[in-house]
Amino acid sequence: MTTITMPQLGETVTEGTVAQWLKNVGDSVEKYEAFVEVSTDKVNAEVPAPVTGVIRELIVKEGETVPTGTPIAIIDEVGAETIPAPQGSASPSEAIAAAPHPSHAEANRQASDEPVPGGNLGISGASFLAPSTPARANGSAAPAPAGARVSPAVRRLAREHRVDVGSVRGTGDHGRVTANDILAAAKAGPSASVAATISADNVEYAAPKAGAAAARPSAYAQARPGSLIPLTQARKIIAQRMVDSKRTAPHAWTMVEVDVTNVWRWRVREKDAFEKAHGTKLTLLPFFIRAVVESLAVFPLMNSSFTDEGIRVHRDVNIGLAIAAGGNLIVPVIRNAERLSVRGLALAAGALIEKARSGKLGADDLAGGTFTVNNTGANGSILSAPILVPGQTGIVTTEAVVKRPVVRDDDAITIRSIMNVCLSLDHRVVDGAVASGFLSDLRARLEAMGPSGTL
Fold first, then answer.
1. Which residue in 10, 97, 223, 283 could disulfide with 2, CB within 3.0 to 4.6 Å?
2. pLDDT of residue 14
């Protein structure tokens, strides 16, 4: 008799939930065959049987959460040497099987017989047992071999988080994708999936340097009338994420006009010295991001995510910057933007934009965004309704700054620099009152910025 306990799937994990029993009482189970699916706040994984035998008892019910080390099932071992118990009955938790871990090849054979759809990456059914694969020279994990298999549990996890398993680079044995990899990809958001596939698609979106050979552009970047452009994996992911966002999040939209005359003058006063000191142009964007960050502190619901468990209000403010690069839409992230000054935001944004244009963004640059800023005005747009980044509640745009005649309170007419600010929002999370309050606060902060400020 072998008593199976709730495994500890992670150093800080203290409990687990029996998500689904894959075997019933009386069923036979092979050694290393998955017999239960366990979920924690960090991972979702199938647990392999340490012995060959018959399921005698399922102690914990599906959906029940118990501490790690708690007995969850009993297997009557078949065809193995019986080890006599020591004098005095051992407690169930002391009767944990001491079977050796399977070899990598053996564990891989226990994965489900479902192939990865359209990809060359796989997920091991016993992925939490496999050591991390050595990283490549560029720090990325090697892809799994062709024909790899995906367990039903991890496939379901990928579906729940809308992650394309074929686009995830695995950290498991031989590059296999683990449940942790799926969760990391989900947390990173759609941009990380796109970044992971740009290289695989061989889409060169880097601008060639002076004197260098021109990079091979994608067909998307050089569309020709009458041609059929094949869909790259990156473009497929972008398309799917956009459809998912519009289908799952009820989008609402609103806009305000902002008088940016004074902040524009502040930028003009600082821009030459800033560029000379840092080698980066000073645009209106970092001033805008700073105001956004301050407004998010007043309206924290705008910096949150809708989940099945509830509305998760994020502690950090990680601002995504929507950037079009060589036919792909990517959203690199300024982490902990609330800690940065206008100067710090300008340098962080400049670094990310340069990395995007040179094709050097990594998954870390694209993970964890909580709110997105889109500088549509750079192309002359004066009004736009952007699609939300999946998992975020808001995306705000800076439109083109134009000079307009404005009637003052004393009825005098003056010329001011005006910019439209547009906001798309997830109506499941916030209503009009919160959204309009956020935009009004943002407008007030931008209009209060002036030439007397310091970067």
1. 97
2. 78
Are 169 and 196 in contact by the 8 Å Cβ rule? The answer is yes
How far is the C-alpha of 295 from the C-alpha of 445, rounded, in Å? 8
Q: Catalytic residue at 173?
A: no
Q: Which member of 76, 272, 316, 431 is catalytic?
A: 431
CA 109, CA 275: separation in Å to the nearest integer?
Answer: 58
Q: Which domains does the chain have, with CATH numbers?
A: 2-95 (2.40.50.100), 104-133+142-188 (no CATH), 243-448 (3.30.559.10)
The confidence score (pLDDT) of residue 318 equals 97
Query: What's the pLDDT score for residue 313?
Result: 96
Q: Residue 129 in contact with residue 157, Cβ under 8 Å?
A: no
Which portions of the chain are predicted below pLDDT 50? 42, 80-149, 196, 198-217
Q: What is the pLDDT of residue 12?
A: 57
Residue type, position 265, single letter: R
Q: What is the pLDDT of residue 218?
A: 53
- pLDDT for residue 198: 46
Give Dmax over CA atoms of the chain in angstroms.
98
Q: Phi first, then psi: what are they for 228, rounded to 5°?
A: -110, 115
Specify the pTM: 0.56
Ranges of beta strands (E only) in 186-274 are: 251-259
Residue 278 designated active-site: no
Q: CA nearest 422: which of 229, 306, 288, 223? A: 288
**Which listed residue (161, 251, 314, 427) is catalytic?**
427
